From TrEMBL:
UniProt protein name: Phosphoglycerate mutase (2,3-diphosphoglycerate-dependent)
InterPro entries on file: His_Pase_superF_clade-1, PG/BPGM_mutase_AS, Phosphogly_mut1
Single Gene Ontology MF annotation: intramolecular phosphotransferase activity
GO biological process, alphabetically ordered: glycolytic process
Matches recorded under Pfam families: His_Phos_1
PROSITE patterns with a match to the protein in the record: PG_MUTASE
Annotated residues for binding of substrate: 29-36, 42-43, 79, 133-136, 144, 160-161, 204-205
Length: 275
């Protein structure tokens, strides 16, 4: 027996009803990029997806095809934006993602959609630099093995895996987390609170930062967190709390966002024992 996640499906649902429901937060690291394939430090360099990356994005879309999506957030980089767009080609609702341009008053006016019927058939996409990958500074574009040979394996490992030590002219994970989490709190959490289901397509380090916030990880725990390209993670937001559901494993409704009542009761008892 499955208990489905309750989500607001009707546009005319009142705010009070929406707030009492569970809403979905989907996180997707972009599919394999050209520089992932070549084992280069990518950071904020704008590089495209590989053929494998395109396939990963499409497969991610199949895994979330039954989860309602009301808004999409991506970074300003093409690999994240393409991942979001390709994933939505697989969605059962067949809504069209439309990029909302907020960079200037003129851009906002030019990209305005005036038809209410069109709005109902579309999903707003907001691209934000705050969700960009961590800036790797002087390491960007360098082969990871060659970088280790030049600077030493220990130094490169320190730059990649420490929380607060940045590479030359780059960002530490802590610096990346400051901008990504602040944006998440200011811009994305209010959408979840209003009852909207949100998908974020971004990068390994910006998503690690957000997961650190959602799961209340320590700086030591987050540095060991690995995210695979093109594998979606599902969270349920209910009563101001985030509940991690893991990765949807299949395009079927039950496999995507349902869970057994027995498992839910087990988790509840476990939580009571821990408290």
């Amino acid at each position: 027996m499955f208990e489905q996640v309750s989500t607001p499906l009707q546009s005319n649902t009142s705010n009070s009803q929406k707030k009492s429901n569970e809403v979905a937060l989907i996180l997707i690291r972009h599919g394999e990029s050209l520089w992932n394939e070549k084992n280069l430090f990518t950071g904020c360099v704008d590089v495209p997806l590989t053929k494998k990356g395109v396939e990963e994005a499409i497969e991610a879309g199949k895994r979330i095809s039954n989860i309602p999506v009301d808004m999409i957030y991506t970074s300003a980089l093409i690999r994240a934006q393409m991942t979001a767009m390709l994933a939505m080609t697989q969605h059962r609702r067949r809504k069209v993602p439309i990029i909302i341009h907020n960079e200037s008053e003129q851009a906002r006016a030019w990209s305005e959609v005036f038809s209410e019927d069109t709005k109902k058939q579309s999903i707003p996409v907001i691209a934000a630099w705050q969700l960009n990958e961590r800036m790797y500074g002087e390491l960007q574009g360098l082969n990871k093995q060659e970088t280790a040979d030049r600077y030493g394996k220990e130094k490169v490992h320190e730059w990649r895996r420490s929380y607060d030590i940045p590479p030359p002219d780059g960002e530490s994970l802590e610096m990346c987390a400051e901008r990504a989490v602040a944006y998440f709190k200011d811009q994305i959490e209010p959408q979840l609170l209003s009852g909207k289901n949100v998908m974020i397509a971004a990068h390994g380090n910006s998503l690690r930062s957000i997961i650190m916030h959602l799961d209340k990880l320590t700086s030591q725990e987050v540095i060991s967190l690995e995210l695979s390209t093109g594998i979606p993670m599902l969270y349920i937001f209910k009563e101001g709390k985030f509940i991690r559901r893991g990765s949807p494993v299949a395009p079927t409704e039950a496999g995507v966002y349902a869970y057994t009542r027995r498992l839910a009761l087990y988790r509840q008892k476990l939580d009571e024992m821990l408290h």
